[in-house]
Design brief:
Elements: E1 3-9, E2 13-18, E3 23-28, E4 31-34, E5 39-42, H1 46-63, E6 70-75, E7 78-82, E8 85-86, E9 89-96, H2 100-104, E10 112-122, E11 131-132, H3 134-139, H4 145-167, E12 171-178, E13 180-183, E14 186-189, E15 198-202, H5 212-215, H6 221-232
Antiparallel strand pairs: 1-2, 2-3, 3-7, 4-5, 6-7, 8-13, 9-10, 9-12, 10-11, 12-15, 13-14
Helix pairs in contact: 1-6
The structure holds guanosine-5'-monophosphate.
Residues 90, 92, 99-101, 129, 175-177, 196-199, 211 line the site of guanosine-5'-monophosphate.
Amino acid sequence: MKQVDLLYSGKAKSVYRTDDPGVYIMKFRDDITAFDGEKKDTLGGKGRYNAEVSSFFFRYLEEHGIRTHYLESIDAASMAVRALEMIPLEIIVRNIAAGSLVRKYPFREGEPLDPPVIIIDYKSDLHHDPMLNDDLIFALRLATPEELDQIKATALAVNEILREYLDARGVTLVDFKLEFGRERGDIVLGDEISMDSMRLWDKETGASLDKDVYRFGKGDVMEAYATVAKRILSRPGGETA
Ligand code: 5GP
């Protein structure tokens, strides 16, 4: 399989076509952005951490029965993925109130949400990712009721799998964002699962281990990303595998 031309370049990843029409190459760049692209930087090595964590989680989820776009890792910052027709929805699962939920609604930061809360945003830079509800999703013909049911059920299943895995390694999964696509009519988990798309807190100290470190200047982002990459590859309890 050979990389051909650039299909799409987002804020932190680029997607390339290959000589196989069913396969794309997703490259995690060292770019980091926040606040709708208003804050941006390039941090050497960041792409590799996100690629490593995403690849690991996609493989782990596949082992636990979740269909993902992941095929194989190509190099430290790139993976081969199935070509999906992406659905422009951001499926956000929240276990603990934080971020925009606390800014927009009367929740206390750190308040547990049981059962988890799913929020769906329209992925559109032009419209600044507004929140949708089911009726709007159907009116905009973004997904059918059957697809939306499957997307929500899969997102909750992913939450249970990741939450347990991270908890055993001293990391609290506060919330995260997923994106799905279609492959020959089937719903498949796509995009990334990384420190750019999850909110993670150290279980002991409550310290942020994700993009919030960058968003709010809470310390060394690369150190936080390195901590997650290391913990993910460790055995439960902390010993490195
Ligand atoms: P919030 O709504 O609190 O800003 O974000 C909730 C969760 O979803 C966080 O883990 C955040 O990283 C993720 N998230 C929300 N919107 C986006 C987005 O546009 N891009 C990425 N990468 N993650 C997002």
